[in-house]
Amino acid sequence: MLRILIAAALLCATSAAAETTAMLEVLRKTEVTQEDGTKNIRYAPVSAAVPGETLTYRITLENSDTQPATDVGMNLPVNANLTIDPFSISGPEGLEARFSVDGEAFLRFSELEVEEDGEARPAEARDITHMKIGLSEIPAETSVSVEYDATLE
Description:
The protein is mostly beta strands. The chain has no helices and 11 strands. It is globular.
């Protein structure tokens, strides 16, 4: 069995009064066909996975304060055994995702480049070492979720 390594997220809400917490879940996505032929997606917690398996990472951010949390940000180091699908990121309105290949410069995935053999080339998903997720606001006394897929190498 291969253990799944989960990176810690740094959470920062600039609204002085807002208390925001984050919870990370690693989930296995399965498609279930109903008797009438309709298909539903179900998620189940993962305790172990095998190389090549794609898992869904769900970060739930809860603002327990009576004031909105504004400019909420997370800096997520990407484990070397994971390849994030930068096009799979979903969440509430106001979600912004940026990626890095060195932990310093964060750009849209389409703007990332890697130097290889003295030449710049467009970054591939496997080159991502960090991801920053930003939300413009989490309303008072609510929670929101951000999801993305990653493949275990």
